[in-house]
């Protein structure tokens, strides 16, 4: 039992001096627990949507190949950071052991069910077996172990939620909590990826914050998806267009608003090359909030400059204060959203 | 002579429907000028610092190899977008022809000297000859032609500046103009890459905005660079550390502030893997402004989450309203800065 760094630097094998997230190799030996670490008996991994999508595509949706790829990633790096997307995901498990420096100082005890709210891209992980891939919800049920560092954040699974629903919601907790901070009364908001889970939660929260004088637009790729989205009642109007066609998104958005650009664009997609579809419909001095892990920094920075748009582009931080509480409260507030999560994830 | 799209979509060869910035191949045939285009007789290219650095590294600093690589990039794409960094730069040239839809509607006439303020990553370009690579200032003097689209922004070279100085300053115009918007009186600001030209301009502007109760910290990689930086007098203190060592940057910053995290971190570096060095020293609810084109979106997004930091991370937009005017005005205000630019770039 030895003292480790708050940020987990003691587990970094290479390169030396890096932090766990951007290192290439983490020590995932679970036989040694440092005094400020928490050992977790892992039950499932919620793979980040962009990452799961990439693994699925590259393996032709063959489940056995996908499992092999997941083992390979962890074998290579000691963590589940997809080398192609750079992203991770999160996990659900039971507290197995608490390092002695943390014992009594945190609100956890051995046996508690928790979800880690730090990315798998920096979490030491060992996978012993992958029991099942839940293809439509990007979840892998496994046997394995993981380590939570002292600076790592987590949430206990609340008693009024099933594990699967809590995990699915907490996975995207940053997005609706940021939406709550950003959207002001009367604003026009466009949400890309509005038919997915984070998009739905953002649409719900945006509508609440924008209030009766606001306008929430949800992008859907076709009539069917638009109908599905509109039935939830969070968006006022659908913008039906391919999110990779910026000109089309721009024109359809202006049609929906009566010619005005929107105040805020929120990107909850999991596919690349949608930067310009976010930038074009946003008004000068407006906000583009990129929650999609498939966003390219340079495409956004140079793209806005290229079309002379003075928009504030924000990198979606997976964490913001009280994000777990805000997100779970949304599901408590909205029976419709909760039902959707329960149908999809249980 | 035919009518083209405002955004230049008519020049996109592949993939269809993309905008010029993220397309793979642009039509750089300069024999046809669309009615809403401007043809420029190019004199020099200011290659984006991250891009120039990458080309230099990959060619072992061999000038002939670097020239060949530049020709190859333009041959491949019809524009100078470095495939490895995704970034471009800007150019200086003389207006050769103005499409008839724009004639009389803009403040340009044939023969005017202009700098384009949109990235080379979306500018149709033909290079006929590279006369000289100015290795220390990332500039290539060439003979060639380029096209400015209708939505493209530009600045006439002001009469009170030499071309080289104006070009060098306008190249980083987004950074000091954004700094002017972000920094408030009394704030503590850390600038990474503070010994470079954009870093210097940001430090100058940050000090002005933060006022007498503010604290401007500049990162330098060693004692010599720190001495050089401190002589300019824009930073109050130097933080001497390797910008790729987040823990070191964090500790040295706290030493400099007396234990407090800073309000704003501005990244003006041109090297990758510095995301965490920006995030760690920033206080909760503070702002991290990434102007470096070598920034990774996922490393920033997941990195902040990984250490539980609720910081607002902004993608440095190369454009913001009046950025050219703000930036040139800084050089008029500060004889020290202007002298530095004149010594370095003339």
TrEMBL record, chains A, B:
InterPro entries for the chain: KDD_N (IPR058932), NAD(P)-bd_dom_sf (IPR036291)
Pfam families (alphabetical): KDD_N
Domain L-erythro-3,5-diaminohexanoate dehydrogenase N-terminal, first and last residues per copy: 10-158
Name this protein carries in UniProt: L-erythro-3,5-diaminohexanoate dehydrogenase N-terminal domain-containing protein
Taxonomic source organism: Candidatus Lokiarchaeum ossiferum
Species lineage: Archaea, Promethearchaeati, Promethearchaeota, Promethearchaeia, Promethearchaeales
